[in-house]
# Entry
Amino acid sequence: MKKIIYGILISLFFVSSFQAQQQNSKNRTNKDNTIQAPPKLIVGIVVDQMRYDYLTRFYDKYGDGGFKRMVNEGFNCKNNHFNYVPTYTAPGHTSVYTGTTPKYHGIIGNNWYDKEIKSSVYCAGDDSVESVGTEHKAGQMSPHRMKTTTFADENRLFTQMRGKTIGIALKDRGAILPAGHTANAAYWFHGADEGRWISSTFYMAELPKWVQNFNNSNQVESYFKEWNTLYDISTYTESAPDHNTFEGGFKGKETATFPYDLGALKDQNGGYEILKATPFGNNITTDFALAAIEGEALGQDEFTDVLAISYSSPDYVGHNFGVSSKEVQDTYLRLDKDLERLFKGLDAKVGKGNYTVFLTADHAAVEVPSYLKSLKIPAGYFDSRAFREKVYAFMKTTFKADELIENISNNQIFLNRSKLYEMGLKLEDVQQTIINEIITYEHIDKAYSGMSMTQTSFTTGIEELIQNGFNQKRSGDVIYVYDPAVLSYSLTGSSHGSSFNYDTHVPLLLFGNGIKHGQSLKKTHITDIAPTISAILGISFPNAATGQPLEFVLE
Ligand SMILES: [Zn+2]
# Structure
């Protein structure tokens, strides 16, 4: 009997170790088959304020080498959304690259009220570093307020710092946050009187030769030319008439209509700043990205490099002219040409099939509310100043005290906690009293307490999105939500920031090494991008990533 039992145990042992061996070799085989050599270069493209429907609305007018190439060769995730509020630039870029939301990465806005130091801070502002490439303060920037790693950081750790990371955007935050804490460099554009690409001592002591050469060339100046439509304006049937009452425009030109003589408008519109607010800003970004690929020899060795590019200009154009404008249409038709030029450059320098590209946005945008109103669609404007006065007056009559509110910003009210304790007031009671009051105000549709965000776990709806955007250490005491298509903004132009589909629905296109051809309407989240890229590279996910790799896009 004993012998039999021993025999069974021994054979079980052999069977299980044989299975384990098989499993190991299977894993190895899988790995070899699916991952092969990792791409030499990951190119992340974030188009600031790109709505998903800019892909479909203008599709017939795009060429074959830009957006259409991504769709035809790669994978189109057609139902890709932000899964938190607020949908602003800094949280957007950070979430794409960290694979998580403000709850964890801490970038709760572009600017926010810092409860500890009792003043407003800028997401990338850093007085402990110096500007590089300019005498102005515009270079005093770093990612120090971002609490978690990006996939670019994880790639640096994985390659023992041999794979490079370069971040590029006209906006400092669009370059700095994606590139992460360990980037070799982030470069952003100082407009004003300079028109130069700059950086900070966080990255380097001085600009490398290729950047100096670029700045000393005449390339940027050459864009002070006429901005007219790329094709005959009468063919732009996918946008509203050029002359309407819903657009801003430039100082020094009476109507927001083509053409725009940028040389003549330069002085009244902030010098080089005006270029950022035209499609030529995208041209400058592409020129510089191509110079970076060459200057940094990106994608030339066995250690994967990361190039994070953000196209900031579409956001400026959208804010100025609005979602349905001819100016927005022209900006995207021209951006399509920039993408074609970038991909051709990558084919030539890195080689087709050696790189992987993803393209997404940091948020989308709402149609101009006054335009929607003209079409009888519910929309409107929120008067933030009147709101502030009303809430302050309410606090004074209710609690017989001044200074109970420290700050109102980003749809949040920050209470003076020490004053509350001093007066013996309970934080949650005061939060609820404010909610009961402001929910009666026009255009405030919902309001929540900071307390509810930390004590309840929301799994659906807007509550989940607010919670994902809520950082216990940094966010406010009361969070309020406007009605759909309501902005605290000028009567012209578009903006963003909400949890509604017009702000959350953005493209996610991937193509190149490791990416299948296909499309899906399955819902994906912006936080899935970083885990997907990590999976392609076989590296650790960013340390607080909450998204999932999109297995169905992988080859
Ligand atoms: Zn914006």
Summary: The mean pLDDT is 94. The pocket of zinc ion is lined by residues 49, 89, 315, 319, 496 (CB under 6 Å). The longest strand covers residues 41-47. DSSP finds 21 helices and 22 strands in the chain.
